[in-house]
User: Fold these one by one.
Assistant:
Number 1:
Amino acid sequence: MITSISAVAGIELRIAIRNRWVLISVLLMTLFALALVFAGSAPTGVLGIDLLTVSVASLTTLTVYLAPLLALLLSFDGISGEAERGSLPLLLTYPTSRGAILAGKAIAHILILLLAICIGYGIAGLAATLAGGASAQGVEALLRLCWTAPLLGAAFLGIGYTLSGFSRQTSTAAALAIAAWLILVVLYDLGILGALVFDDGGVFTSHVFPVLLVANPADAFRIVNVSGSQAASLASGMTNEIGAASSWASLLSLILWPALSLYVAMIVFRRYET
Amino acid sequence: MNSGRLTVENACKKYGRQEVLQDVSLSVFAGERVALLGHNGAGKTTLIKLILGLTGLTGGTIDVFGHPTGSDGARRTAAYLPETVNFHGMLTGREQLRFFARLAGESGKQVDGVLEKVGLASAADKRIGTYSKGMRQRIGLAQVLMRRPQLALLDEPTSGLDPISRRTFYDLVDELAQAGTAVFVSSHALTELEARTDRIHIMASGKLVAAGSLDALRKEAGLPTRITVKAVHEKADAVAAKLGGERVNCSSVQLTFGADEKLDRISAIAGLEKGLVEDVDLAPPSLEDLYRHFTAKGDGSDHIN
Ligand SMILES: Nc1ncnc2c1ncn2[C@@H]1O[C@H](COP(=O)(O)OP(=O)(O)OP(=O)(O)O)[C@@H](O)[C@H]1O
Ligand SMILES: [Mg+2]
């Protein structure tokens, strides 16, 4: 069991290094992060906040879009790609379980995400510190970003494998992955914000909206990172009480999402007919 | 259940409402080489997948050397060479095999030896993406050999191999069988199977229409044996008259008869006076003849021509 998980994780890492996925992910993260740091460096000093803290706020927004995208790109052909190549039936005749195969893939992909995020944000953080100084809160916020971003990524890895397990072809899986990203990361927010405006302070605003916000992994991630930091209250305009309450719920959501989505992916993979 | 063989009993498989396999029963013993023949869509791959537990039976039972299909024990017992193998192009042959060795719970010591055996030693560190079709097929075979399985299920293993590679392939299969592996091969390459298998199963439209050794199949089919006698110049008519055969061209006479008459016919030819016969060619019904005979008989209604 352990050997087959590590065998699968090892081979997936090797493949990702060979076809430059690792390099591309790291570069993508680093470049975007650096761009944001220097774009944000202009208006500093105004509020007396260090550049690192300001940067983390914009990196949080970047992560909301980029981490799910990277995760989906890594995972969308996890099952359908093997099936299309014809290597899945052979793999399944080996004395190992489907669970072990999926676990191996997930571990490899989480490691890649972790690497890309830590290197990218590490370099960006360093650059921000050198250019505009850092406070203890800024460092803390950056570290929080580095361990919560892989959780967000992992949630979308599970979603990617699940969609892959519903597809006979990788092209279908790719289309579904793009749709999932659009819906969960972009349209969801637009939808509930629209509803908020329409509701104009009614039951939806007080009871449904906070739940919907926490239930979405991308929003949960935003809340966890934003409410914790000093820049947060500035950026979000959220009152402190709501912040504290939903912060814990969001953290829980952010931890439950990867567990749940990977579990669902496992169930879908178990049922996949070769 | 017997633990020294593969037993398939009354296996049935439906895909939707289509009956792909109907009541197939067979067994393959340790050390035996057994062939599975059948037209495109006859159900060969389906049968192999059922044995491997890759898809579920709709009826009947399959026992893999004492283990139910799809169980961990069965998967430890059987190795599989799929019909179409496509490994990840980014990996080298050696990396791919090391991976399979680890999955099988082995150390990977045998990888080099197996690569040597299938003739890939010099290409072992090149990416599989650069391999020819035959080379990829050999990686597939290598992972079977590496596992030294009790049962090897090979689905059209020689498709895409050149004549020399085919021969080496069957040498390796013989070696496997000699080491005690039960080898089950599906194929369309009839001539090569003729010499290289102990028993043959013929399928048509999901049913097993014949099973047995080549000799047994010949007996069962009762197809005529053919002798072509090449007569000395201008003696063909004389030869035809004496042997009771049919003249097919200016110098050849053809005799067609049942298998039991063979010795009589040969001695009749040997008994002819000198100076009449130049050469004799004896052709028992080939596997192809048998295959045609059995698949035509067994209602190959949806046979694709
Ligand atoms: N997954 C599937 N879903 C539906 N029908 C299937 C499936 N797999 C096979 N079939 C059908 O089952 C029948 C037997 O297919 P199978 O692949 O076993 O044939 P085969 O004997 O291996 O043929 P070939 O010589 O072409 O490889 C075919 O009619 C095919 O259409
Ligand atoms: Mg087939």
Note: Residues 224-283 of chain B form a domain with the Alpha-Beta Plaits fold (CATH 3.30.70).
Number 2:
Amino acid sequence: MTRGTFAYVGQRFVLIALTALVVSSIVFIGVHQLPGNAFLSERQSSPQREAELLHHYGLDKPLPQQYLAWVGGVLHGDLGESLVNRGVRITPLLLRELRVSATLGLFALLFTVVLGMGLGILAATKQNTWIDYAASFGGTVGYSMPNFVTATLLILLTVTGFYAWSGGAFYEDIGWGKPEQVIVPAIALGLYPMAIISRLTRASMLEVIRQDYVRTAWAKGLRPRLVVIRHSLRNALIPVVTILGPITTSVITGSVVIEYIFGIPGLGKEFVNSIFNRDYNIVIGVFTFYAILVGLANLAVDLVYPLLDPRIRY
Amino acid sequence: MDGVSFHVDRGETVGIVGESGSGKSVTAMSILRLVAEPGRIASGRILFGDEGKQKDVVQMTDDEIREFRGNDVAMIFQDPMTSMNPVLKVGFQIKEAMAAHERFTPKQARDRVVPMLKRVRIPAPEDRAKNYPHQFSGGMRQRAMIAMGLSNEPHLLIADEPTTALDVTVQAQIIELLRDLNRDLGTAVILITHNLAVVASLCTRVIVMYAGRIVEEGPTRQIFKSPQHPYTWSLLRSIPRLDEYQHEKLLTISGLPPDLTNPPPGCKFHPRCRFRVDRCLEEEPPLGEVDPGQKARCWVLMRNALAAQPQQAGQP
Ligand code: SF4
């Protein structure tokens, strides 16, 4: 950690804040253009009652004024109140849901990185054997399936399939709360990025093991294990790490679909519901959360990068 | 590669010369069994050690060859820019070479890194050991490679075009360093190069290769004074010499190096040879002794050829 690093991190934080501001204002404008509002589905809703509610939430004020009020709240760490569930403060709600989503996301990333790199390395060291072909085939399948298809197939397999095969002894209970319930959605979420990582790792490994410095390592008489791990793997991982930023982004956006399908009470599900409910404050809040998360994930990756490659300095 | 046979004595410096594609690098790589796929050693022996208790590299198990590499025979490569791992510190990479073998304890290995760097004349070796390769210049990297190669005190150092990628002034320094190390440590050196000037300044014996064959070999002085194979002769004519008549044109070797997958019949050099006779097209000449200690693979020896065609040979 040098001074340069601190300055760099500082700059990046400013950028993330700016991005969050831009994203939130775009979403703010966009969400108010959606037809209808949060109170249309109210029972016994009368025009008068609706006007009262709109006034209560300040929704009858001009948009710029509303936005400024919202930004003011955000600066105090307050994202406002839910329009549908009255009295529910959004900040603690989203933080709670973030924990759920982060758990799912981390498991998905773990699956992605461990299995993706593992398969990539295996395929590269066993190049042009059936192992390589099988891994490449699996990769192509994973790569070409959208996550909602993967999710539906996995549910079919684990819920209906396992139940039928085990004669009812095994019952996969989708939902959230039990530790084992994270596995299937994490796989559904991680399969696509896993395929990308395994392909990239394979290509990168194959390139590195032809490098002159790997030949030097052999010529020194190093043990094969050291040649592979110390002289090939670490170098091969550098390009893989660069795409971990975009991969994390894809896991975050993918979680919107996966949480909805698996009924997981995380940010993603909240996001979808809040749009349907026209719960403006939550929509904007979730969007802003996502913008910040993507920014932080990419920053984290960029900070790992120089640890792997000493030629990079900030 | 066919029928290549040569020996290197303890502490000797031998140059292997030839154009790219002549098989000189493959020869060097086979000594350490580093020939890349799909190349392989189909037959032959590579013997190492004292008379009577020699080991055959070709017959070694994987463990034996691993112990052999870097320990008995070390190798340095053409491009020092890419030959060191960019993400590991230079000192670490040198220490690692020693840690791979049992000659030194881990502590000795650690303590030897800085003296080794000093030995190859790298300034401020304590600081430099902690640098990464990209912080070194090309010449310094090649020095560090030499330090790495010599760290295990091998009997033989194979240097594959060690100066080709470097500036001329740096080239001279590296050659001088190799010469001094050979003298001080007694490490035998095989120098592989296309550059005869480099051979002249370092090696006592020279092997000339063409199309995967040895075409001439002998003491450097003798070969430079009276080359007997037309290929060696034209190689020597193609280097500029300050002491010769300035207006004499440099002779370049016309034609392309042979296609190794589809070599010509008879003498492999005949398509480019200006002295060829009918026999050259049909029968490949053997490597025969032409002078004490000097062998050449040619039907027409240069001293006869030059005597027969003085006008062509003298002023091309
Ligand atoms: S054998 Fe004939 S073709 Fe070959 S180098 Fe000698 S003279 Fe030339």
Note: The pocket of iron/sulfur cluster is lined by residues B 230, 267, 269-270, 273, 275-276, 280, 285, 298-300 (CB under 6 Å).
